[in-house]
Design brief:
single chain, alpha+beta, Serine Threonine Protein Phosphatase 5, Tetratricopeptide repeat, 6 strands, globular
Length: 137
């Protein structure tokens, strides 16, 4: 289920409720204090912050509903690909690293991370992720 504007609930009127665990979380932190999920994401199109406790759509029109699932979490692999399509390599690398923590598609994610770091000009990190793919192939 994607967030909607009626998600803008607060605990005690001051802190928003995390859309994943429904616990109070600080509005100035990108991750929920309780469950650790990302609650503020940069729009892949314009990079403005999207506060997931309010909506899954940026005012520029970019939507994230295909990558956000409540209460399960975020499809970091898919969201990373969305950022990569916009050539936002730092955000893509962040989400692919988060997906790696989940343990899915390990070799493919290492290849994507190598590509992202190469595009960002970080050859050392790119080579590290390339080595991991050759070691596990």
């Amino acid at each position: 289920m994607a967030p909607t504007n009626d998600r803008a609930s607060t605990h005690g009127g001051s802190m928003p409720a995390c859309p994943f665990c429904n616990q109070a979380t600080r509005a100035d932190r990108p991750r929920c204090d309780s469950c650790g999920q990302d609650v503020i994401l940069a729009c892949p199109n314009c990079m403005k912050p999207i506060h997931l406790w309010e909506t899954d759509r940026c005012p520029c029109g970019e939507g994230l509903r295909y990558y956000i699932f409540f209460p399960e979490g975020i499809d970091h692999e898919g969201l990373g690909q969305r950022y990569a399509l916009k050539e936002r390599w730092d955000a893509a690398a962040y989400h692919w690293s988060r997906a790696l923590q989940d343990g899915s598609h390990i070799i493919m994610l290492h290849r994507k991370l190598a590509q992202a770091y190469e595009r960002m000009g970080d050859s050392e990190r790119a080579n590290y992720y390339r080595q991991v793919t050759t070691t596990h192939s």
